[in-house]
Amino acid sequence: MTFLTQSDAILEITPAAAVHTAQHGWRAKCLQRLVRMDLPVPTSFAISADAVRAIAAGQMPDRSRLASMIERADGLVSVRPSAANPAWGGPGTVLNVGINHDRHARLVASHGRAAADALYMGFVQSYAIHVARLDPDMFPDSEGGLEASLRAYEHETDEEFPQDPARQLAEVLRSMARAWDGPTARLLRQAKGAPAQAPLGLVVQDMALAIGPGVTGSGSIQFIDSITGIPRLTGRFRGQTQGRSKGEGAETLYLTRDPRGPSFEEAAPEVFADLVRFGVAARERLREEMQIEFVVSDSRLSIIDATRVSRSSRASVRIATALARDGIIPPEEAVMRVEPRALSDLLHHQVDPRAPRDIIARGINASPGAATGRIVFTATAAQEAEARGERSVLVRRETVPEDIRGMHAAVAVLTERGGMTSHAAVIARGIGLPCIVGASGISIDARARTLTVGGRVFHAGDELTIDGTSGEVLAGAAEMLEPALDNSFSQLLDWADQHCRIRIRANADTPEDARTARMFKAQGIGLCRTEHMFFDEERLPAMREMIFADKPEDRRLSLERLLPMQRSDFAKLFEIMAGLPVTIRLFDPPLHEFLPHDREGMRELAESLDLPLSDVTRRVEALSEFNPMLGMRGVRLGITVPEIYDMQARAIFEATVLASENGDPVVPEIMIPLVSARREVELVKNRIDAVAAAVRNESRKDFTYRLGVMVETPRAALRAGEIAEHAAFLSFGTNDLTQMTYGLSRDDAGRFMGTYVSQGVYAEDPFHILDRDGVGELVAIGTERARSHKPGITISVCGEHGGNPESIAFCLRAGVNYVSCSPFRVPVARLAAAQESILMQRESAQMTPPAQS
Ligand code: PEP
Ligand code: MG
């Protein structure tokens, strides 16, 4: 065995020692920084990850080396894990390694029997459970005391409790090294992003004993509130923690002065002042908000450990920006420190993590934020509740376009079916409504107006809380945290924008969406889904009339009624976006989505159109398709029923003329959905050009427009070169592109997605995180072919992936010019894009050789 003689296998942590995070772990490195600051840190040793690996394989360090570590520690040490990243965890700390009959006897003499017994017994039990792997039930609390614990150990193992401190230490090291290799530990850390073979270092430290006379005990202190991130001194101090038990002098003190009882601050004002001073210094030197663990022995302070303060999303933003504002870290570093997803927690109410949760079901966390309301089972009931001033949660098997108004009226949505890009999910994200979809454990009886889950029955009117951030459905009302759109939030995003290499636009269908988009500083609208505008109560009849028209002339007449409404929709969007680009997608869904689906609805429609019911039913049936998502929709409708696109183009151009009169000239962007062939683009382009010419003539105003194509069929991606010839921009609609690449219905995927992901068929839900290998390859191929035909063409992504951090990183590297996502995801996208831009910049700086002087 060679490594045991290498001097770096076990290193004393001194200011100059070669301690490296990758080899010795974050805890060892952090302790070295504290040592360099001259803080009273007990003597500590770092055992390298290579050494720990060897220990796990049975190659133990030299006995005399272990013995000497314990001897110089006056017989007692602690062992703590030290992974490269604190989030990866590690085996639990073991205290008081080295205690045996002799050391116990000395402790009895110096500190009394009760303290000595408690210390010894604590170690015997922890050794028995973690090292000898005995059943914890054999050691019920402190029953029977030290003697009983030693007897139980000897009875079970047929040997005396090990008295050789070096052997104790060797066995503790071995058990910790092996625990790190166990499958549970591996899975847990992999879930936190650790590589499967993540290294583990260990730290052996002299025990600072929290027993003895005077102010003695152990505690922790931090300077920030973990939930709010607001500066606040918090912590705890427990007197005599390693010795006497309650009633024998053990006392929990408030850390700071408190009217409710005695405090550590009052009991030991000088030690407290030192502690605060050390904490402030540690924040500056470690460039982080730290929680400091300390021991006080007869008013003598030891700093035994420091860990990064655990923090909520909102606290992470405040902490990072405060560190940068105080000049402790550069703003770029603050941008890198906040998890982009954390920002979406700040935009909405959140269930207070400290509050109890009565979880009744789980589903896909389709739109973040939390809200409490009374159960309603129909969109109409949601609207009625809103009219009464009541908050409602809309519970549906799945939502359909007709439910949109109900969704606007509800405070949250829960569906039994669906996935990340199903109707409910897309709309909810768009309007910032907490939403859970695909909660397959629930059962809805719309007639009886009940929701049954796990044997519990909830009725219409009962209260539910939807936590769209975690995907948990809670019974009753939960305690909430308010949104936190404060200065730290906007400051962080302003810093982020300075680094961002791509633009971030918003998918916005209504003036309200557009205002939200501007509030979050979106750089334009990348997708306005115009069909949503037709579900309005006033417009639906005209729309239905148009669908029922047999002749083009009749159709044109109905469309003429819709024209002014569309014109004013677009004019409002242009006005709100004040010169920023606005991309309007022409009509996309199958027409039958606008028709009633039940008998009652058809009867009402027959009445309003003054037609026999049989005509209406026949027409609805004629429009129904086996596979509507692959049927008469998008550009196919635009070519077969061209009057719809004509009307929309006219509305866009007339709005352009209007808006340009009042402000800067508007250059609208018109986008054709579901293209799969170049000829489709040519046909639509010819008609739109003709409408533009007509509007120019009539208004005697000149304007230009940009025509774009949505790439959302695999064929369009493959033929992007020729398609690009007629387009000023291409926008990847990755929702449909994913659906068509996988042959996977976006509305039904939720049913089996959980099984598929848990069994590793898909690494992730591809509607949630862009599938780089398949769909991503189509994006890359499409981009490359389009640019080779037309180098200056603008490329974007406007599917839901445009708001997903991992997918944004991919898009940025694939060379897209912008991504477009729901308005409430814009802040997340800004931060994610900035972080990836910074990473790319750092990579290229590493590759560029320094300039020759
Ligand atoms: C898409 O398919 O990615 C897209 C943006 O369009 P929609 O979600 O409206 O089908
Ligand atoms: Mg689409």
TrEMBL record:
Coiled coil: none
Positions annotated to bind substrate: 529, 585, 712, 733-736
Residues annotated to bind Mg(2+): 712, 736
One annotated GO molecular function: metal ion binding
Domain (PEP-utilising enzyme C-terminal) ranges: 489-836
Spans annotated as Disordered: 236-260
Occurrences of domain PEP-utilising enzyme mobile (ranges): 390-471
SUPFAM superfamilies (UniProt xref): Glutathione synthetase ATP-binding domain-like (SSF56059), Phosphoenolpyruvate/pyruvate domain (SSF51621), Phosphohistidine domain (SSF52009)
Cofactor(s) listed: Mg(2+)
Catalytic center residues: 423 (tele-phosphohistidine intermediate), 798 (proton donor)
The family this protein is said to belong to: Belongs to the PEP-utilizing enzyme family.
PANTHER family found in the cross-reference section: PHOSPHOENOLPYRUVATE DIKINASE-RELATED (PTHR22931), PYRUVATE, PHOSPHATE DIKINASE 1, CHLOROPLASTIC (PTHR22931:SF9)
Function of the molecule: Catalyzes the reversible phosphorylation of pyruvate and phosphate.
Protein name per its UniProtKB record: Pyruvate, phosphate dikinase
